[in-house]
Amino acid sequence: MSERIEVNPKILGGKPVIKGTRIPIYLILELLSAGYDLNA
Question: What is the pTM of this model?
């Protein structure tokens, strides 16, 4: 997973994000736990 996740203090205060974006990992996890279907 480390090739897909980036931690950089200059991006979102160092929170883990999808590499090359500003989409935080916690957002993806929240969507999945709420039942969001990534294949839809």
Answer: 0.78
